[in-house]
Design goal:
The complex is a heterotrimer of chains A (642), B (175) and C (105). Chain A is mainly α. Chain A contains 25 helices and six strands. In chain A, helix 14 packs antiparallel against helix 15 and helix 17 packs antiparallel against helix 19. Chain A is globular and about 110 Å long. The N and C termini of chain A lie far apart (87 Å). Chain B has a single domain, classed as Four Helix Bundle (Hemerythrin (Met), subunit A). Chain B is 75% helix and 0% strand. Chain B is built from seven helices and no strands. In chain C, 74% of the residues lie in helices and 0% in strands. Chain C has three helices and no strands. Chain C starts with 6 loop residues before the first helix and ends in a 13-residue tail after the last helix. At the B-C interface, helix 1, helix 2, helix 3, helix 4 and helix 5 of B face helix 1, helix 2 and helix 3 of C.
């Protein structure tokens, strides 16, 4: 493969960022929007070309004896620390990368198109498109990284663009604090990732993914069995690197930023906080999967974190009012699903089924979650509120949104034949074959998923019509917004039939997917029961939900308040760190360090006031002093010589 | 052993030099001060001749006594009435000046008389020891680029003089 | 009685000239008078160069050349100084050093 297309993949969005970022102010919004969309369309075409050539051309550089290869299209030296430790920037093409190219370019294009309608009347439209381009560039740079340091650089860049886009409505205090929260929390997580990279490369001095993942034995040997606090240093390194993934993918306890990130424009939530950036953690683990396999403890850690997060987020999602928050927690839960699936993947269990299933779910989830978010955007566009209490009975007013949203809900709930069913089924069978406990646990989470999604669906589209509709009749969105909905809904309908095992497996060897009938039956039954239960509760306006709420007020409030995680963070930071530790430091700073400096200043001032009379402006006085000084010097010299 | 004529000349010039120096700084009429300065400069020129530097003596007379003195006289006449006397010095200031000068004089003379190197050979011997400096030698030294030749300072000084001409015009011209 | 005109003989008048210049520079209030005192100081320094050249390094002429340049520079310096003094006189109306205590634009 030539390097033109891969370079274009990175160059187009970056150029767009520069053009729109610098020249955007001078452009009319139509021009900026058209330029952004056209550039993204060409990016889409290029990404598809690259990915399809990778998957289907059968070229020996991509596939040898049926095994898909990892190909470094280019890898140029950027920083040379030592002879062996060199930071490079390159383009690594392999199955998961090709898949991510498709996902990112598709969703990015959909979001660009959608935003044209959604953001039409917002000030800073051009800035918005520039940030979108920056994000697309960073995310593409992240997935094509040939080495962990490049990934780290782009990891930070996606963090920055996420920060910029969450705080897009910078006049809203809530958006500003949400963007700061997202940035600070993920930065803390990235600190862990950086430490992990340092530990790993301290023992095995290369950043290159291929070197690391193909020589796992050497990596393990290079640590020499060193341990720290009871765990091997390699486990520490891997867990620390995973911490970065926990931050970006909003795993507990670092999930607190993602619900608040919904303050950003809804298309941004669809692109960054549902489909692409938040799966970076999953992608990171998948990228270094062979190395994680070496350390069982790190795999266990991933599984536990994922399982707990999945359950927690699902429960919280059942009790939210804001539809974007529901979707945010749903995203957390689904990503945790992928994490668990990765955590239970073993080469000896169905040839690493969990890995394939996780990537499959990443793909389908990106499509239907983007669809759901864009649908939610259309709803918000129509009723000007995020809360389902302002909605209800909308199916008659917004048919396109209704049907596409229903498809999204069915897909995420795991109903045949929508895409979510297939990927979820693969994940669940991987979990069942690893350990029945995780299988049942995650089946329960899947049931909760179906419940809360249909709770939202029924509350938004059925329940009872909001009386405000008479004054302000909601209607379907303009074509720029409807077209992406329809496309994504179509993808969600058919994506499940992709023979995913032929494309993405942990070692590149193709593998046939087959539906595990028992698991499929169980999960389908659970999902249908959950949907029926949600329908029973929320189809028509009744007082069953409020009765349930009154029966367990403490539980409801706790879940609604997200089990007080934010309060815990606030307590730790405000009361303990700021109030306790920092007070002493502040006192020391004010009364010792500042006071010393103040003393210097006042001393200087005192002396200056005293001696300023010498600065008389009278030349002759100066000469007298000068001459006296010269005489004294002469006298001293003379004495010394004698 | 120096000739008596040389010694007599020395004394005449030295006494003139000291006297006129003191008069220069004590005279209350500024035009007189300038005139006394002229005599000091001329005495210095005589010393140069006596020390065997004829060219330098000529330059001293031409540039200092001829050029700079004219500048002084012009500027004095531009800024003051010729007969105008400077104000009397305050007692305090005069005492300060006298003290400082006397102290420095004492220190310097003390240093001079304690320096054994200075009581060396006589002038005649020294003039004999050195070759006579011809104009050709001076000219070669001024425009050569070898060691102990001074083309660069020479050019620098010419540039300085140019700058000085322009600077003088710019500073002194009427706004 | 033998009298040798040694180096010291020439240095003593030079030193007296120098201290006279210092006295004048400190006590005179007229700027031109101060400049004249300055010339005395400079002249004594020039004279010293020549004396040292003659008595310590009779075979060379560096001291003389130095004095030559010093005279040229003294001329330049005097010209500029007088230009400044005339300018001050124009704006202040006199050439008293005490009336020019502040740097002004």
């Amino acid at each position: 493969m030539g390097i033109t297309l891969p370079i274009l993949i990175l160059a187009i969005p970056f150029t767009m960022f520069l053009v729109l970022g610098i020249g955007g102010v001078k452009m009319p919004r139509k021009v900026a929007g058209v330029i952004g969309i056209l550039a993204n369309a060409s990016l889409l075409a290029i990404c598809y070309t690259v990915a399809f050539r990778y998957f289907f051309s059968g070229d020996t550089q991509f596939i040898v004896d049926g095994v898909r290869q990892q190909l470094q299209v280019f890898d140029v030296t950027w920083l040379a620390f030592t002879e062996r430790l060199v930071v490079k920037i390159g383009f690594l093409l392999d199955p998961i990368c090709a898949m991510m190219l498709i996902v990112i370019s598709t969703i990015s294009f959909m979001v660009h198109l959608y935003s044209w309608g959604y953001m039409e009347h917002e000030p800073g439209f051009q800035r918005y498109y520039a940030f979108l381009a920056l994000f697309t560039f960073s995310m593409l740079g992240l997935v094509v990284a040939t080495n962990i340091f490049q990934m780290y650089i782009f990891w930070e860049l996606v963090g920055v663009s996420s920060f910029l886009l969450i705080g897009f409505f910078y006049k809203l205090p809530s958006a500003v604090s949400a963007s700061k929260k997202a940035f600070i929390v993920t930065r803390f997580a990235d600190l862990g990732m950086l430490l992990g990279i340092l530990v790993l490369t301290f023992y095995f001095p290369t950043f290159n993914f291929i070197d690391i993942t193909h020589n796992t034995g050497n990596v393990l040997a290079s640590t020499g069995g060193a341990t720290f606090l009871g765990a091997s240093v390699l486990t520490w390194a891997l867990v620390l690197i995973f911490t970065g993934g926990m931050g970006k993918s909003a795993m507990m306890p670092l999930h607190i930023w993602l619900p608040d990130a919904m303050e950003g424009p809804t298309p941004v939530s669809a692109l960054i906080h549902a489909a692409t950036m938040v799966v970076a953690g999953v992608y990171l683990v998948a990228r270094m999967f062979p190395l994680y396999l070496v350390e069982e403890a790190s795999m266990q850690f991933i599984t536990w974190v994922g399982a707990i997060t999945a359950f927690y987020a699902a429960v919280v999602a059942c009790c939210q009012i804001d539809i974007k928050r529901i979707l945010a927690f749903s995203t957390i839960s689904q990503i945790a699903f992928m994490m668990v699936s990765l955590g239970v993947a073993r080469p000896d269990i169905h040839e690493g089924l969990g890995y394939m299933a996780s990537m499959f779910h990443l793909f389908t989830h990106a499509m239907f979650k983007a669809l759901l978010f864009l649908g939610a955007g259309a709803l918000i566009h129509a009723v000007h509120s995020n809360n389902y209490t302002a909605m209800g009975g909308l199916r008659k007013y917004m048919p396109i949104t209704h049907w596409t949203f229903l498809i999204g809900c069915l897909a995420i709930a795991g109903i045949w034949p929508f895409s979510g069913f297939f990927s979820k089924d693969e994940m669940l069978s991987a979990m069942f074959s690893y350990s029945p406990f995780w299988g049942y646990w995650m089946t329960m989470v899947a049931g909760l998923t179906a419940f809360y999604m249909f709770r939202m669906y029924f509350l938004v589209f059925w329940w009872e019509e909001n009386p405000h509709y008479k004054e302000h009749k909601p209607h379907d969105a303009p074509w720029q917004m409807s077209v992406p909905l329809l496309i994504l809904a179509a993808v969600s309908c058919v994506a499940g039939f992709i023979p995913f095992g032929h494309f993405v497996t942990w070692n590149g060897e193709p593998y046939d997917i087959h539906i595990n009938a028992q698991v499929a039956a169980t999960s389908l039954t659970v999902a249908v029961i959950a949907i029926a239960f949600a329908g029973w509760l929320y189809l028509k306006k009744n007082d069953k939900p409020s009765l349930m709420r009154q029966a367990l007020p403490a539980l409801w409030t706790a879940a609604h308040r997200r089990f007080y995680w934010d309060e815990i963070y606030l307590f730790v930071t405000r009361k303990i760190i700021f109030g306790g530790i920092c007070k002493g430091i502040a006192w020391f700073d004010r009364h010792v360090i500042d006071a010393t400096m103040d003393a210097f200043a006042s001393m200087t001032q005192f002396v200056s006031v005293k001696i300023k009379g010498m600065q008389s402006g009278s030349v002759q006085t100066y000469v007298v002093w000068y001459f006296l000084g010269a005489l004294v010097l002469a006298a001293i010299t003379w004495i010394c010589i004698l | 052993m120096d000739s008596v004529a040389n010694i007599i000349l020395y004394f005449i010039v030295a006494i003139a030099m000291v006297t006129f120096s003191v008069l220069t700084v004590t005279s209350r009429k500024i035009l007189r001060s300038a005139t006394y300065l002229l005599f000091v400069l001329l005495s210095t020129a005589v010393f140069y001749f006596q020390l065997g530097y004829q060219f330098l003596g000529a330059v001293q007379i031409a540039v200092y006594a001829g050029g700079i003195m004219v500048l002084f006289v012009f500027s004095i006449l531009l800024t003051r009435h010729p007969d105008e006397k400077t104000a009397l010095l305050t007692h305090h200031k005069r005492m300060l000046g006298i003290t400082l000068s006397v102290v420095s004089l004492v220190v310097l003379l003390f240093a001079l008389f304690n320096m054994p190197l200075l009581h060396g050979a006589s002038l005649t011997e020294m003039i004999k020891a050195g070759n006579e400096i011809t104009m050709a030698e001076i000219g070669t030294a001024l425009v050569g680029t070898e060691k102990f030749q001074y083309l660069l300072p020479f050019e620098a000084v010419s540039v300085l003089l140019l700058a000085c001409i322009i600077g003088g015009v710019v500073v002194a011209r009427k706004r | 009685m033998t009298m040798d005109l040694s180096m010291l003989w020439y240095l003593v008048p030079s030193v007296i000239m120098f201290t006279a210049g210092v006295f004048g520079f400190i006590t005179r209030r007229n700027m031109i008078a101060m400049l004249i005192s300055l010339e005395l100081i400079l002249n004594s320094a020039d004279l010293n160069f020549v004396i040292f050249n003659r008595f310590l390094f009779p075979g060379q002429m560096e001291g003389m050349i130095f004095t030559l340049f010093a005279i040229a520079i003294a001329a330049a310096e005097t010209a500029v100084a007088i230009a400044i003094i005339i300018n001050i006189y124009r704006s202040l109306g006199n050439t008293d050093i005490n009336s020019a205590k502040e740097m002004r634009h």
